[in-house]
Amino acid sequence: MPQPFPTRSLSDAELREGVVTVSHALRAEYAWDAGVAIGAYLDGLRAGRILGRSCRRCDRVLVPPRMFCEQCFRPTDGWVEVPSTGRVATFSVCYVTWDMQPLVLPELPAVIELGEGRAEAGVGPHPGILHRLGGVDPDDVSIGMRVRAVWKPAREREGSILDIRYWRPG
Amino acid sequence: MSVGQKVAVVGAGMTRFVRRSLETGKELAWEAALRALESAELTLDDIDAVCIGSAPDAFDGVHMKGEYLADGSGGWNKPVIRSYVGGGTGVFCAIQGWYHVASGMFDRVLVVAEEKMSSTMPHAQGAFITIFDNVTERPLGPNLLWIFALEMNRYMTTYGLDKADIARVAVKNKRNAAGHPAAQLGKADITVEDVLASEVLAWPVQRLDVSPVSDGAVAVVMAAEHEAKRICDRPVWVEGVGWHLDTAYWTNRDLAYPRYVEYAARMAYDMAGITEPRRQIDIVEPYDPFDYKELHHLEGLLLFDRGTAPEAARDGVLERDGDLPSCPSGGLLGVGNPIAAAGLMKVAELFWQLRGEAGARQVPGTPHRGLAQAWGDLMQVGTVIVMGR
Question: How many Cβ atoms sit within 10 Å of the Cβ of residue A57?
Answer without folding.
Answer: 13
